[in-house]
Design brief:
Length: about 400
C-alpha cells in the first residue's frame, strides 16, 4: 500500500462509524488516505475522527475552501482507488444517474481511478428494485460493487444490507489496486502450527502463529491467484476469497495437502509441522502419579520431503521455510537440497522482533542455484509479496526457457 493514494467517501448511513476502522487499516498498511464525507455523513460521525486518523483534511462541503483549488478534480484524478463505504441508497442513485450536488458525488464524475462501492442499508431498502437497478448500472459501468453481508441490522431486522467487515473491504480494495500477475495460477499455502494429542485434554504444539502463511495467502489472492490455505489451529481470520481448510495434526495436514498438490502451480509450506507425535494417545486423561512421566514420541510423516519427491511429476514450484535458532544458513541449505525445494525461506526464530508470532519478519531466501537474498525487517505482508515476486520470477524464467 506504500505510495498508494486512496479516497474514502463516507455517506450518511448508520454504518459510517465502521469507516473509521477502514481508514485505520489503510493507514497501517502505509496508504495515503483522503476522506470525503457527505453533509449527512457528518451527522453520524465527525470529520475530526477522520482527520486525526488520516492526518489529512476532510472535505464535506463543496465550497468550504476559498481559493483556486479544484479539489473535486485534483482528488479524483490523483488517486489510485475511491471507496464509498458505507454507500447509502441515495449516493448510489446519484452515481447511477449522474447527479453531482455535493463534493463526494461531484468528484466521482471526474474520477479516473477504480471505484469500489459498498452499499449498506436496511434490507427492504437494499432489495428495492430502484436500488437494485442502480447497483446494476454501476456494475455495468465497471464500478466494483461489494455485496453487503447478511445479519441483524441496526433497524433490528435481519437480512442483506450490513456493511461488510472493514477487514473484508480492505482486502477487496487491496486486490483492486494490486498487480494481477498471479492470475490463473493455483497456489497452496500451509500455515500455523500442528497439534499432537497426548490424551483427550492435552497436546504438544509449537509457537507458530500462522501470520506468515496467512500473509502469503492474502497476498497471493490479492495478486489474482486461486488460493488454498491449509491451516493448523490459529487465532487468525482466514483471508477473504481463499479456500480454507482447517486441520489439527501433522497427519491431517499431510492428507489435506496431498488432496490438492497435483493441481498446484505453487506450493508454499509455511506451517510449522510437528516432527514427532505421541506414539500411544491415551484414551482417558492421564492422571497425576509419581514424579515423572515418560512419553514415547514417534516420527511424523515428512510432508515437505514427499512434496519434493513428487515435484518432478507435477512441476510445481516448491517453497519451504526453515525456522532455526542456530546454524541458520547451513541448516537451511541442507533442507533446500534434502527436500528438493526451489526456494527456502530461512527465519531466525531466536530473534524477538521477527519470526514466530510477530508482525514483522526478516528473512533470508536461498535459491536452488545457490543465490541468496536477505530482506530487511519489514511487515509480513511485504515479506509475503517479496517471496511471491521471486516465485513469479522463477515461473517466468521457466516459461521463457
Ligand atoms: C438514523 C438513520 C440511519 C440511516 N441509515 C441509513 C443507511 O444505513 N443506509 C442508507 O442508505 N440510508 C440511511 N439513512 C438515510 C440517509 O441518511 C438519507 O437517505 C440521506 O439522504 C443520505 O444522504 P447522503 O447519501 O448524502 O449521505 C439513515 C437515516 C437515519 C436518520
Amino acid at each position: 500500500m506504500n505510495n498508494k493514494k486512496i479516497i474514502v467517501g463516507i455517506s450518511g448511513g448508520i454504518a459510517a462509524y465502521k469507516a473509521a476502522e477502514l481508514v485505520r487499516l489503510f493507514i497501517k498498511a502505509g496508504a495515503d488516505i483522503e476522506v470525503a464525507m457527505t453533509q449527512n455523513a457528518t451527522r453520524f460521525v465527525t470529520a475530526t475522527t477522520f482527520e486525526a486518523l488520516s492526518g489529512n483534511k476532510v472535505i464535506s462541503d463543496m465550497f468550504q475552501h476559498e481559493g483556486p483549488d479544484l479539489e473535486h478534480i485534483t482528488w479524483a484524478q490523483g488517486s489510485d482507488l475511491i471507496i464509498i463505504a458505507p454507500a447509502t441508497a441515495n449516493i448510489i442513485a446519484k452515481i447511477a444517474h449522474g447527479i453531482g450536488d455535493d463534493f463526494l458525488s461531484t468528484l466521482l464524475f471526474a474520477a479516473t481511478a477504480r471505484i469500489l462501492v459498498c452499499p449498506a442499508m436496511n434490507s427492504q431498502m437494499y432489495l428495492n428494485p430502484a436500488v437494485q437497478n442502480n447497483l446494476r448500472l454501476l456494475s455495468q459501468r465497471g464500478i466494483t460493487v461489494m455485496d453487503p453481508t447478511q445479519g441483524v441490522l441496526a433497524c433490528k431486522t435481519e437480512g442483506p444490507g450490513r456493511l461488510p467487515d472493514p477487514e473484508d473491504i480492505f482486502e477487496l480494495a487491496s486486490a483492486l489496486i494490486s498487480k494481477q500477475d498471479l492470475a490463473g495460477l493455483q497456489v497452496m499455502i500451509s500455515a500455523g502450527p500442528t497439534i499432537e494429542p497426548i490424551d483427550p485434554v492435552r497436546y504438544i504444539t509449537n509457537r507458530s502463529s500462522g501470520k506468515m502463511g496467512y500473509a502469503l495467502a492474502r497476498a497471493a489472492r490479492q495478486r489474482g491467484a486461486t488460493v488454498t490455505l491449509i491451516s493448523g489451529p490459529t487465532n487468525l481470520r482466514p483471508p477473504t476469497g481463499v479456500s480454507f481448510n482447517s486441520v489439527k495434526t501433522a497427519e491431517e495436514m499431510r492428507q489435506a495437502i496431498m488432496k490438492y498438490h497435483h493441481a498446484c502451480d505453487i506450493i508454499i509450506k509455511a506451517a510449522a509441522v510437528a516432527d514427532y507425535k505421541v506414539d500411544q494417545i491415551a484414551r482417558e486423561k492421564i492422571k497425576k502419579a509419581g514424579n515423572d512421566l515418560t512419553l514415547k514420541l514417534i516420527k511424523n510423516p515428512d510432508i515437505l520431503a514427499q512434496l519434493g519427491a513428487e515435484k518432478k511429476k507435477y512441476k510445481y514450484i516448491l517453497v519451504g521455510f526453515a525456522a532455526e535458532t542456530q546454524n541458520l544458513l547451513q541448516n537451511a541449505q541442507n533442507k533446500l537440497i534434502d527436500k528438493n525445494l526451489d526456494i527456502i525461506v530461512a527465519n531466525d526464530v531466536s530473534r524477538d522482533d521477527a519470526g514466530f508470532d510477530t508482525d514483522n519478519n526478516k528473512i533470508k531466501m536461498i535459491f536452488k542455484d545457490g543465490r541468496e537474498e536477505d530482506s530487511p525487517l519489514i511487515p509480513k505482508d511485504q515479506v509475503a509479496n517479496l517471496i511471491l515476486d521471486r516465485i513469479k520470477g522463477l515461473l517466468d524464467k521457466r516459461n521463457a526457457g
